[in-house]
Hints:
By secondary structure, chain A is of the alpha/beta class.
Amino acid sequence: MSRLLILGAGIAGHTAAMHARHRLPSPHEVVVVSPNSQWNWIPSNIWVGTGFMKPEQVTFPLAPVYEKLGIPFHQARAVSLHPDGSADRPAPHVTIEYTSPDRQGQTADLDYDFLINATGPRLNFGATKGLGPEAHSLSVCTYGHASQTAAALQQSIQRMKRGDRQTFLIGTGHGSCTCQGAAFEYLFNLEHELRRQGVRDRARLVWISNEAELGDFGMGGMFLRRGGYVTHSRVFTESLFTERGVEWITRAHVREVAPGETSYETLDGENASITHDFAMLLPPFTGVGLRAFQRDGRDITADLFAPSQFMFVDGDYRKKAFDAWAPEDWPETYQSPRYTNIFAVGIAFAPPHPISKPMTSVTGTPISPTPPRTGMPSGVMARHVALNIVDMMTGKAEAPTRKASMAHMGAACIASAGADLVHGTAVSMTVFPIVPDFNKYPDTGRDLRYTSGEIGLAGHWIKHALHYAFLYKAKANPLWIAVPE
Amino acid sequence: MAIRKPFEQSYYPPVPTRWTKYWRTNLAWQFIRFIVLNVKMLRMVRRH
């Protein structure tokens, strides 16, 4: 009997757990550790942030699902990895600290034969002074944050209904942020909600972002065939901003959020500030801060994790100039180069480098997006890693055979731009591959047959349908496996 | 739509005509796009 231990029960961890349990014969065990009691369909948090949905519509308790699947579940956070065991416990194990109310603060050691690190990000609000719901800005990163944001939005709407004008600042709260897409979605859902409530004319909407250009989305943007031209997503995005009357500030690193005022630096070294009544600014991400120790107690964290606290896998992490980046740099199996029984998926793996071109301001501040690796790519890589591990546990393979490089993988992204079954819209994007390959596609880096974008009500229907489909799947309801990642 | 002031950032991007915006929420046309987009995404999924 072997044990697969999965740290994290987000999109990547939960997907890996379900597929592994589905394929593994019963003597083998799949165990999940997550500090959260709830599963959260994070792409719908933006709808919680406008009040279109309630937190209970985007979450469900994990424990009953894992009980149904026969997966032991520990509501706990992983504290440290001991891949060679320790002096008093020879098997590889993870030390966890319980977060459930009944065992809060208790620790335990869980042995493993194979380990998947799917711990996701730590929301690093501390990187920017005054950033975050506990300081002077709002967030939609968690359903709790989004709920708080919805309440603040309602207060702003009430003020506007009384005749006040309000300035809304939406975007990224640091020069190294990712997930511009989520902030983009929140911006346009907010704009839609203001129109629905009849107060749009009293609102000034401003976008602030670390992207070099609008439409970058952390992946260098994309080229689309539109109206007889091949155009960059910048054109498409600027058009939408103009149509909806949204101002934009790009190439910006937010330095500080004070009550009602945000100061920022731009790539050309300008220091400026903007006053606002409502600021929803996403934080940068780091890894969750797992430590790793050898059997003799020596700290080997730096051997397993990048300085960003994300885990090294089978990528090429040598420092290279932008022009020397290659698709082959990107990991294919997500296996740790040091321990063949450890894998990292989703946000938890360290990308070898950004996708967008790195930029630094004249004062030396890095201002460019880090690569997105959420949603569909997370699910796909989690499934591939789970199936590889199943093959290794059952003796069908000695090494991973399936590959899921972001340089050979496409992604579909539906970015909501207003939630309404008749009047709503969303931007429907597909890209292939996620990481541009300028050797294979010299002009644009991507296959234009599979790279597209359009805005319309159909996109909203799809996003709404995906919301229910993925919740259905994550609850392990009948035929869940038929819903693709 | 916002007022487009000459030489400010919103002066340059293309903006959709009323006709283009109409088709974005025309139920019949969007139903067709719904099918087309789903086929596109399924083709993408099948590549994995």
